[in-house]
Amino acid sequence: MSDQVVQPDEVREAVLKRYSEIATNFDANEAAASCCSPAADDSSCCESSPEDAYFENIYQADTSSLPLEVTGLSLGCGDPITLANLQTGQTVLDLGSGGGIDCFLAADEVGETGYVIGVDMTDSMLEKANQNLAKVGKANVEFRKGQIEKLPVEDNQIDVIISNCVINLSTDKPAVFREAYRVLKPGGQLAVSDMVRLGDMTEEERADMISWSGCIAGAEEVDYYVTELQKAGFKNISICDRDNPDLELAGVIGLALSKSRVFSARIMARK
Ligand SMILES: C[S@@+](CC[C@H](N)C(=O)[O-])C[C@H]1O[C@@H](n2cnc3c(N)ncnc32)[C@H](O)[C@@H]1O
User: Fold this and answer.
1) What is the pTM of this model?
2) From the CB of 121, is ligand 1 less than 6 Å away?
3) Best mutation site among 166, 171, 176 for ligand 1, i.e. most ligand atoms within 8 A of its Cβ?
């Protein structure tokens, strides 16, 4: 889908504002976050979601060892850790690492011989992530400031890229996929949870900045996602509904619906 109705700068500003405010206002003693609950205003992605509990209980991976400062600031829509099936010694990159939950879970999976890099563009979120890193004391995790469209990572360095509810926030997904491909080692794996869409979205829906920053308006059609991953060079592409993981959607013809359905997907691809 073209983004003619959307101004990239306006989206970036809305996303930065929302996640800055979430990080700044987050208090671990208050209710746990989701991508929608500590919203900067009273409109949120939950309102567009069919079930209020959609963003809750998303981890199969064991999060019990992590403090509330980390789990409470979990803003994802899925469980890329379980999807990625990480191995000891791997180097992992988390696109849009937020408060760091997936980086810390990944660090345990790859062990002391592995390494985890989280990239995020929001200063106050990076500050929270580094405070959390000091609290959990993991020597094999590092957070870098940067944009997922222009990664602060050298070519061919990464075994597995994970990401949790972030790529939908970008107005330039082809650049995100090109960058992901560039930094992965040959044979490297993309294992991502993200919001995607089947069916149409009106220009008005697409131009709603609260919905964009709430992970709904930027959700791309499954076909577009697959095509752009292919153009970037990825192979073995798989996209499944988080809640219906046995149904492969990548490459399936004729799934377009007249009414838009936005959902969390498990996305896998290989360089
Ligand atoms: C919905 S939160 C998800 C955070 C984390 N992945 C999690 O599961 O808790 C989105 C995060 O992505 C970051 N982000 C959004 N767009 C980005 C971009 N283009 N480049 C880098 N970071 C971005 C935001 O600052 C925010 O921390």
Assistant:
1) 0.92
2) yes
3) 166
Nearest partner of 28 among 76, 74, 78, 81, judged by Cα:
74
CATH of the domain at 259: 3.40.50.150
Give the residue from 243, 206, 192, 199 showing the smallest Cα distance to 222.
199
Cβ–ligand 1 distance for 153 under 6 Å, the answer no
Do the domain assignments include residue 168? yes
- Ligand 1 close to Cβ of residue 198 (< 6 A): no
- What is the total count of domains within the chain? 1
pLDDT in tens, 80-111: 999 999 999 999 999 999 999 999 999 999 99
User: What residue numbers bound the domain in which 144 lies?
Assistant: 8-270
What is the CA(21)–ligand 1 centre distance, in A? 13
Instruction: Write the pLDDT tens digit of every residue in 220-267.
Output: 999 999 999 999 999 999 999 888 888 888 877 666 565 678 999 999
- In terms of Cβ atoms closer than 10 Å to its own Cβ (0-12, 13-18, 19+), residue 28 is middle
**Would residue 210 count as lying in a domain?**
yes
| CA-CA-CA-CA dihedral for 31, 34, 39, 45, to nearest 10 | -140
Model confidence at 41, pLDDT cuts 50, 70, 90, reads: very low
Residue at 25 is within a domain: yes
Residues 198-207 have pLDDT tens digits of: 988 999 999 9
Residue 98 lies in a domain: yes
